[in-house]
């Protein structure tokens, strides 16, 4: 930790807004000397005499040369994001001005910030725990309503509070049991084993619930992997294009033109779906046999949703039924989609609709009935958990620590069942505490922190 203390002495600087020309740019300084340094180049007022949370108009000057007219916002420690003195300088958004201002302040003694260093300081100064700091990065990268919601929940506390309070209770038990170790002769029991069991079981329930939320969390963060399957010419690429609302896939009526997987992200109802069009494997007329080609097969197995598309005008219904049967047996949520209704007799289509209520009839080419398809897609991926605002684990690091916590907690229970000696019990409890602490950051190593924060961008 010594490293962090020495770092805290310096004042860091970075552009907080994106690179490139914009109407305004915000340069941020954080550190004990942030206000003092800004004051050396700001003309208009004495910044060191101003209140926290105030904004000041003036100029930034290098000696006599005016670099820009700016607005300066002041945040006096500890009432700032990093809990240090923070100055935000809003300049005009020219890369020349930005560079000049940053260079000038570096000359005065500021140091260019490392990636994620502002957030790292906020974490080290106790603004939030590690899981919340990671949620800041997720929030910045969130690109759909669902991922935004999950990151926001976590940043505002999420499971951190619950884990922290259960962890505190467990620490109490650990110390009581360790205390008993000092009195082995007397045969005393400071910690009730029944109460310990109740607490561990309570913790296990919380941990299990968080672990099981990860499947959902993962799809929210990375998108729901969805495969469009079907015979050549069923209209898979056309459907993908219609959903994308732009021509990204190559559409052609010559079978075999789509050479590779086409993968694209489509936002449906605030959820990202990663669509793969498996067109392109045309060596055989049996499309499922063709799907035996390993890559397609892999895609199928990792899919969370499969759409099977067929051409209503296709006369080989036997083959299509065979395909459908095989796909249904995969046990992955699955939708049957009949395409090209525009080419078929409407009376015939109506009859089919009555006979096959679970099939969705669309025209990918004419973009007909696509809303029914998208709402059925949303129904199939059960997002109720996310809608009710439950906390969802989206981070693989948390998932990993939670699985280890679960194992150690189970070991504690086994230890209680088998009435193991106190030192073993204490060890298993300490191990559970360790893994729990990894999530919220009570237990960290410099490597872990460096790894987490280096994934942030500079300025965050
Ligand atoms: P894929 O091989 O399954 O990817 O099929 P394509 O998307 O390349 O479509 C094959 C042919 O069917 C193309 O000529 C498309 O224009 C046509 N097609 C696709 N959807 C429809 C539709 O809804 N109606 C009609 N009439 N033609 C369609």
Automatic annotation (TrEMBL):
It comes from Cyclobacterium amurskyense. Mg(2+) binds at residues 237, 258. GTP binds at residues 233-238, 252-258, 277-280. Residues 223-382 form the TrmE-type G domain. Gene3D superfamilies: P-loop containing nucleotide triphosphate hydrolases, Probable tRNA modification gtpase trme, domain 1, tRNA modification GTPase MnmE domain 2. It is found in: Cytoplasm. This is tRNA modification GTPase MnmE. Its cofactor is K(+). Transmembrane segments: none annotated. Binds 1 potassium ion per subunit. Its EC number is 3.6.-.-. The keyword Transmembrane helix does not apply. It comes from the Bacteria. GO terms for cellular component: cytosol. CDD domains: trmE, TrmE_N. PROSITE patterns: G_TRME.
């Amino acid at each position: 930790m010594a490293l962090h203390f020495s770092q805290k002495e310096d004042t860091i600087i970075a552009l907080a807004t994106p690179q490139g020309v914009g109407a305004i740019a915000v340069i941020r300084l954080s550190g004990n000397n942030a206000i003092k340094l800004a004051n050396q180049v700001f003309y208009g007022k004495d910044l060191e005499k101003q209140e926290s949370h105030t904004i000041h108009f003036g100029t930034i000057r290098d000696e006599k040369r005016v670099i820009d007219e700016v607005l300066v916002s002041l945040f006096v420690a500890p009432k700032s994001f990093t809990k240090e003195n923070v100055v935000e300088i809003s300049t005009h958004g020219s890369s020349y001005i930005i560079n000049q201002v940053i260079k000038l302040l570096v000359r005065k003694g500021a140091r260019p910030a490392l990636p994620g260093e502002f957030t790292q300081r906020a974490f080290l100064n106790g603004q939030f725990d590690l899981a919340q700091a990671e949620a800041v990065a997720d929030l910045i990268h969130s690109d759909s309503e669902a991922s935004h919601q999950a990151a926001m929940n976590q940043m505002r506390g999420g499971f951190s509070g619950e884990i922290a309070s259960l962890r505190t209770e467990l620490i109490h038990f650990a110390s009581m049991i360790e205390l008993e170790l000092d009195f082995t002769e007397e045969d005393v029991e400071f910690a009730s084993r029944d109460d310990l069991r109740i607490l561990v079981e309570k913790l296990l329930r919380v941990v299990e619930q968080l672990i099981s939320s990860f499947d959902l969390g993962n799809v929210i963060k990375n998108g729901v992997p969805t495969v469009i399957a079907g015979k050549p010419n069923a209209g898979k690429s056309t459907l993908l294009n219609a959903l994308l609302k732009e021509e990204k896939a190559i559409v052609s009526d010559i079978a075999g033109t789509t050479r590779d997987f086409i993968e694209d992200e489509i936002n449906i109802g605030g959820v990202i779906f990663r669509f793969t069009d498996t067109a392109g494997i045309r060596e055989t007329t049996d499309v499922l046999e063709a799907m035996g080609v390993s890559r397609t097969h892999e895609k199928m197995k990792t899919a969370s949703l499969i759409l099977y598309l067929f051409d209503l005008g296709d006369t080989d219904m036997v083959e299509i039924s065979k395909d459908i049967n095989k796909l249904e047996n995969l046990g992955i949520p699955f939708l049957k989609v009949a395409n090209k209704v525009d080419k078929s007799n409407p009376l015939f289509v109506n009859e089919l609709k009555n006979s096959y209520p679970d099939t969705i009839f669309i025209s990918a080419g004419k973009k007909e009935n696509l809303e029914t398809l998208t709402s059925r897609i949303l129904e199939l991926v059960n997002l109720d958990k996310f809608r009710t605002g439950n906390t969802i684990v989206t981070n693989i690091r948390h998932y990993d620590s939670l699985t280890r916590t679960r194992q150690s907690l189970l070991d504690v229970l086994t230890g209680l069942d088998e009435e193991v000696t106190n030192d073993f019990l204490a060890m298993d409890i300490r191990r559970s505490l360790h893994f729990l602490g990894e999530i919220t950051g009570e237990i960290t190593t410099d490597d872990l922190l460096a790894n987490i924060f280096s994934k942030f961008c500079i300025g965050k």
